[in-house]
Amino acid sequence: MNTVIWILLIIVALFGGLVGGAFIARKQIEKELGEHPRLTPDAIREMMSQMGQKPNEAKVQQTYRNIIKHSKAAAKAKK
After folding, report:
1. Same domain, 31 and 42
2. Going residue by residue through the chain (79 aa), what tens digit of pLDDT does each one get?
3. How many domains does the chain have?
């Protein structure tokens, strides 16, 4: 009987660790992506060039600010 209790405790602890670790990892990744978005002004400039537009700095910065603003709003709405 004592061995069965230990086995159950180990299984419960393993399950709790997996669930807790997944939750913490998800929150950490969301935080990291919120602070450091994947899209940079250089990437925006490159995309504009590929689409045939001549990227000026004002347009690139405006697009970048809009992307950051929308990503923050989406993160806030998700909470």
Report:
1. no
2. 789 999 999 999 999 999 999 999 999 998 887 777 788 889 999 999 999 988 889 999 999 899 888 887 877 787 6
3. 2
Whole-angstrom CA distances from 70 to 41, 45, 75 are 15, 19, 9
40: Cβ contacts below 8 Å, ≥ 6 apart:
64
DSSP 3-40: HHHHHHHHHHHHHHHHHHHHHHHHHHHHHHHHHS-S--
Indicate the pTM of the whole model: 0.56
Residues 32 and 51 in one domain: no
